[in-house]
Specification:
single chain; alpha+beta; five-stranded mixed beta sheet; globular
């Protein structure tokens, strides 16, 4: 390597945000492809157990804090310990991770993300709501149909297009459901419904 091949500290600092976004995108893509591919294998089972949803939520919020802080996004969670659900823990972790990642990606700077959990008719309803850019009716219909959607975020963050497809599929495998509501310019609400009883 010659001296001409070495970048300065100033150049590295300028490139760091782009490199960080690219690494995050690649990691997200590989994770989603891996988990989706595993779920498609013949004989791939669902490993359900009873667990506290709060634990997964805290871990995922901590995981996403750097991305949220980069856009000065405030994450407000109103979920109490003891919200027990019966599902595949890893699958639900992936669902929460993708939805939270999506909320941060499509929030403008200084936005807020609200997370709540309530009991409803044998299910825990976990909602992640943002006041970001929102989605069109066409995009909502694609999510409902399980179609692939790939859109860049408010800071030009790349999207894999697989995240919500995986979320919908994993919720169905766990006898739950994913409900998405959104309005352009006002934000989105992603609610997942998870069973609380062992069947």
């Amino acid at each position: 390597m010659t001296s001409e091949d070495v970048i300065t500290i100033e150049e590295f600092k300028a490139l760091s945000p782009t490199l960080s976004r690219d690494i995050s995108y690649t990691t997200e893509l590989l994770d989603n492809i891996l988990h989706w591919s595993r779920s498609q294998l013949k004989g791939y089972g669902i490993d359900r157990d009873l667990f506290d949803l709060k634990n997964i939520l805290v871990n995922e919020i901590n995981y996403h804090l750097p991305a949220a802080e980069a856009k000065n996004i405030r994450i407000i969670q109103d979920v109490f310990p003891g919200e027990m659900v019966y599902a595949d823990r890893l699958m639900i972790q992936i669902v929460v991770r993708n939805i939270l990642n999506n909320a941060i990606k499509f929030c403008n700077e200084n936005c807020e993300i609200h997370i709540t959990a309530v009991y409803k008719d044998g299910f825990i309803e976990l909602c992640i709501e943002d006041n970001g850019v929102g989605m069109s009716e066409t995009a909502l219909q694609k999510i409902h149909n399980g179609d692939n959607i790939s859109t860049r975020g408010t800071m030009n963050e790349k999207g894999t297009g697989l995240g919500l497809v995986i979320c919908k599929e994993f919720m169905e495998k766990n006898d739950g459901k994913l409900i998405v509501r959104s309005e352009v310019g006002k934000g989105s609400s992603f609610c997942i419904y998870l069973p609380v009883d062992v069947k």
